[in-house]
Specification:
alpha/beta; single chain; 44% helix; globular
Length: 345
């Protein structure tokens, strides 16, 4: 049989070594790719970091985590706990979280301040989550009695808007009270020490003050004045580049809403465990009707009301009313549960 090489071919040992080296390199590359090439994560392993205020209004997040509903929806959710929604939103803006749960007022402040965020859904709306707590032994029996009194409030949150709305509807000018900008713990301490006459507070700390101080305090909820909303928000760049993860989160929150309606006692206890609130107090705080995953006209109207208030108070620059629909990524919720999106778009 003839050789595969002609007699005139140059078959130098160095050439043979070079070919063998190339072959070995090819095998090495294949082996490397087989073992070390990046694995594209499936939905089962998709990781999402969500900043969550540890409040009762975050119930859908707490139930979804506690009952494994995120895992069932194909997302691995890492929760970052915060005291306030305002701080949770900052985590997203700082690039430390992918999504955040936050109230509508801080969302408005962020958007009008130029922050690049978008709303995915409302996840709660409650009329008894915020209240004015006052010392009844200082003659405060009704909202009008707050005139000339001192009030502690955490500025930049829904508490400021709620306070002004409560005062206005009862005919008390906001400049007729002395406001102190205090965080939760500092505000509670100042109130207990008697250094302020009243305090703007949220649940479960309202209930805790009621349990501790009894008839020494008067609590004004203002159910007819304001519905406090928590929203799920994120940066548009993240939302647009992670549609499957976003929709997995929304599916889990919808499943949590269904779980709350189907078995409210189990859900209530799950929320209480997460927030370290005993079940006797949770019975007072928990209302399954407060939780719904939606994007509706009421949310738009609330954002516009808060915006008008902020402009009037000089908290944001006066400008034409923003079209908040432009800041809603409603397509994701619509794809998961079309009936949850009733906002006109």
């Amino acid at each position: 049989m003839k050789s595969a090489f002609k007699s005139g071919d140059s078959w130098h040992p160095n050439k043979r070594m070079a070919l063998l080296a190339l072959a070995a390199l090819a095998v090495g590359v294949v082996t490397y790719l087989a073992f070390w090439s990046p694995v594209i994560p499936t939905m089962a392993g998709a990781r999402v970091v969500i900043a969550v205020p540890m409040q009762t209004n975050s119930a859908l997040m707490l139930v979804a985590s506690g009952q494994g509903l995120f895992v069932k929806a194909g997302v691995d959710v890492i929760s970052q706990p915060f005291e306030l929604g305002r701080d949770a939103l900052k985590s997203v803006l700082d690039g430390k979280a992918d999504l955040a749960v936050v109230g509508d007022a801080p969302t408005m402040f962020a958007l009008l301040g130029g922050a690049d965020i978008a709303m995915l859904a409302g996840i709660s709306q409650s009329r008894r989550s915020l209240a004015i707590v006052a010392h009844s032994d200082r003659g405060i029996k009704q909202i009008q009695d707050l005139k000339g009194k001192s009030i502690g409030v955490t500025k930049g949150t829904n508490l400021t808007y709620f306070m002004d709305a409560m005062l206005q509807i009862h005919g008390v000018p906001s400049d007729a009270v002395t406001q102190s900008d205090l965080g939760r713990d500092a505000g509670i301490k100042a109130f207990k020490d008697g250094r302020i006459d009243a305090l703007m507070m949220f649940q479960p700390f309202i209930a805790k003050l009621e349990a501790e101080m009894g008839d020494r305090i008067k609590v004004f909820y203002g159910e007819d004045v304001y519905a406090f909303r928590f929203l799920l928000v994120g940066k548009p760049s993240y939302i647009d580049s992670h549609p499957q993860e976003v929709r997995g989160v929304l599916r889990a929150l919808i499943a949590a809403n269904q779980a709350i309606r189907a078995n409210p006692v189990e859900a209530r206890r799950s929320i209480g465990d997460a927030l370290k609130i005993d079940d006797a107090m949770m019975v007072q705080l928990f209302d399954p009707g407060d939780y719904v995953v939606s994007l509706d006209e009421a949310m738009l109207l609330a954002l516009e009301d808060i915006t008008r208030w902020a402009m009037k108070k000089g908290l944001v620059a006066s400008r034409p009313m923003p079209n908040y629909l432009n800041f809603m990524k409603y397509q994701h919720l619509e794809s998961v549960q079309p009936t949850a999106v009733t906002v006109v778009h």
